[in-house]
Structures are given as structure tokens and as C-alpha cells.
Amino acid sequence: MFTLNRKKMEMVAPDAALPGRPTQIPTAERHFLSDLPIKAEVPAGYAEAMFGMGCFWGVERVFWQLPGVWLTVVGYAGGFTPNPTYEEVCTGQTGHNEVVRVIYDPARISYEDLLRVFWENHDPTQGMRQGNDLGTQYRSGIYVYDDAQRDAAEASRQTYSNRLRDAGFGPVTTEILDAPTFFFAEDYHQQYLAKNPAGYCGIGGTGVTCPIGTGVAS
User: Fold this and answer.
1) Pick the catalytic residue: 55, 90, 201, 210?
2) Which segments cross the bilayer (predicted)?
3) Per 3-state DSSP, what percentage of the chain is helix, strand, and coil (rounded to 5)?
4) Is 55 an active-site residue?
């Protein structure tokens, strides 16, 4: 068991990743809560963000509750296997992270507010795990769509790293990368905790606040 867990917590080499498939796996057609198309385009004037911070069931719920967030979708990103299934991601042999794609209205909620919610709702010092969830699919990650997002993400990481250090936590392990290809997760994962309110949610914050954004999205 220890050897298996350790293997899942090490990033797979690209040439050792599972082959995947050339076509998308089936997913939901519409958002369970808003009834918007799951694969909706970003409306004019809106923006998108992508985060990995543990089990994507709980992460998606954190973001769909925020005023100004228009659509949330869960999926896989940051690895090497095209169009992976959940079972494949769980082996640790795809390299993918469980992520949430967020489409939001910048006039109502800023990217800095999203970053504050990101930092305060998980422990970004745990490496390839989040709580009892072990594996590369649970790593902390911010996946940026432009230079402005990258600058904001890197500045927030430094600010929060200092706060965590002062509170006695270890180094932040969050990766900040250009947004990779997003692969939609299966139908049953979309808005899972709205469909299953008593379902497992393995994310939790450190209790350390992050002093960025307006504070309206708490």
C-alpha cells in the first residue's frame, strides 16, 4: 500500500502516461443548477479561470456559490493523457489534476477575489495531496489565461506564503502554469455535491486569511 501511494504521489513521465483516446468522453449537457450549457462559450465581457485544490466536487461547490460566477465545470488538466476517464486519472498515470473551470463576470467579482477564495479554502502546502486524498490529481494549481492573471497569481502566492510562514506552515507547493487543455469530466461529477448534498468533500482551509481582493466574495 505504501509503495502504491508513493507512486501516485510522483508525477508520471510523459512517455509513461496512459494513451487515452482521440475523442471526448461523454459529459453532462447542461449545468445541474443553472441549466446553462456545460460547454458554453465565454460571453463577451466575461473571463475564465482554472483552479486545482483537491477533490473537484468540493472545489466546484465553493466557486458556484460566489456572486458573479456564471458557470462552473469540473474536469482534468495539466497532464499528458488525452481525454482521460476518472478511473485513469485515479491511477496517477495520466499526470492530470482535478480542476474546476470558472467563467465569471469581472464587473461583479475580480480575479483577485477568486484567488483569495482559492487560497483560503485548501492547504497549499501539502504537495501531491489534500487532506486524506493522496495523489498528483489533488495538487494545488492555478492555471492562468493571460499575463495579468499570471502576475496576480504569483503576487498572491508570495503574499499568502508569507502569511502561512508566519502561522507556522511549510512552503507553498502550488504550481502556476499557463492554462492547459481542459478535458471535461464525466456527467456524474458535474455539480456532484448539488446532486448528492451529503457527499464526501475532502477540502479544507488552513484558517489563515489571504489579504487580497475586495472581500465581497467570502
Assistant:
1) 55
2) none
3) 30, 20, 50
4) yes
| Tens of pLDDT, residues 12-57 | 999 999 999 999 999 999 999 999 999 999 999 999 999 999 999 9
Instruction: Summarize pLDDT for 78-118 with one digit per residue, the tens.
Output: 999 999 999 999 999 999 999 999 999 999 999 999 999 99
Q: Please, is 18 exposed, middle or buried when counting C-beta atoms within 10 Å of its C-beta (0-12, 13-18, 19+)?
A: buried
Q: pTM surpassing 0.85? A: yes
- Flag whether 208 is in a domain: no
Grid coordinates representing 172 are 507553498
Question: Is 106 inside any structural domain?
Answer: yes
CATH of the domain at 109: 3.30.1060.10
Give the three-class secondary structure for 37.
Answer: strand
**Structural domain includes residue 17:** no
- Cβ-in-10-Å burial (0-12, 13-18, 19+) of 4 comes to exposed
Residues 106, 101: Cα–Cα separation, whole Å:
15
Q: Are 94 and 76 in contact (CB under 8 A)?
A: yes
Grid cell 481525454 in the structure block, residue: 83
52: alpha, beta or left? (left if phi > 0; alpha if psi -120 to 50): beta
